[in-house]
Amino acid sequence: MAIEHFSRITAEVAVGRCPRARERAWLAEQGLTAVVSLQSDADLAQLDLPWSEALTDYAALGIDATRVPVVDFDRLDLGRNLDAAVAAIQAQVAAGRAVYVHCNAGLNRSPSAVIAWLVAHRGMTLTEAWETVCTAHDSAPYQDVMIRWVRERGLRLR
Known about the structure:
The protein is α/β, with parallel strands linked by helices. It contains seven helices and five strands, in the order ββαβααβαβααα. Strands 1-2-5-3-4 form a five-stranded mixed sheet, sandwiched between helices. A hairpin with a 4-residue loop joins β1 (6-8) and β2 (13-16). α4 crosses α5 (109-121) and α4 crosses α7. It starts with 5 loop residues before the first strand and ends in a 6-residue tail after the last helix.
């Protein structure tokens, strides 16, 4: 079963909403071999999606799964955790895996992490990365958080 609100951004990175149990096998069918979840404990509890259950499912599918919890709608928490999210994405890509990055709805946290990864590891400016992700995927990253993150790391805005 296909995941709604799923977008392939590069050959090795896709972004979208949280896959339900019945949708996890579809990720493997798409050639994705890793998952980076940005869901917080509260997200998982609200959706009644135990992370241990997801890990078991992913392992059975040959998908390596990592979690970097980020509180939804919390600009400060997103800013604090973007480096860890980018590192998790890059670790999967560096290991030769194609990675699906998701949060709950796939609108803010996961697109933000993919934008930051494109800037940090693919040499894009923030403007280029923003356009790449937001053209391919309906999303609403926090512009102020992204600008601050790029400036603090001495990366390029434009």
